[in-house]
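@channel sequence for tomorrow's demo:
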Amino acid sequence: MLSPQAPAPRVLLLEDDPAIARTICYALEREGIAVTHSLLIADARQQWASVAFDALLMDVGLPDGNGLDWCRELRSTGSIAPVLVLSARGEEMDKVLGLELGADDYLSKPFSPRELLARTRALLRRSRQFQPAAQAQPAQALQIDEQGQRILLHSQTMDLTRREYQLLQSLIQSAGRILSRDALLEQIWGLGSESTDRTVDTHIKTLRAKLRERLPGQEVIITHRGLGYSLNQPG
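structure tokens (generated this afternoon):
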């Protein structure tokens, strides 16, 4: 159970099967997680725009569209809230596609309520661990605003996805040290995730491109072949 002192996390559930939705709502709400249920993407969009949800649990095949298309749209607009995809389509390529479009985790139907709860709570924990604490480092070109969940480059906010933010934050906090792909996978995606080294490399590639656009001629993220990545703080 979550601590009674902490505000209850709010989760949006997008699921068109009422029986599955009832099972999910019961499993989460008995653990202190507030759930808002939508049957259609159209309603989920309205709910998402009006409420600050902590996570999104979404089916893929819905009567009014494909959940992955909305997931991709959310990521393109800068949303960093964690997304767990629930789908009867369990093939490997479907999972890879979902993760590459911005989902944080993938759970194939049928699943047990216990596994769903564990994965949801893991997403919420990882989301919250990047929020409070250390002050930004004004002496550095790259600064972490943990409360605002953003990275500042020369005092200007960088346009990052949630995973890019988490990756860059980890690299900044470990400046001068090499972080292996396995370490980044465990720290950011979690031990239970089905993500692979390729997922880390893909996110590093897009993050590196954004840094190069702002800092032409400077190599901020250094690749150490066979070892991992490190950060070279820009001047």
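heads up for whoever presents: The first strand starts at residue 10 and ends at 14.
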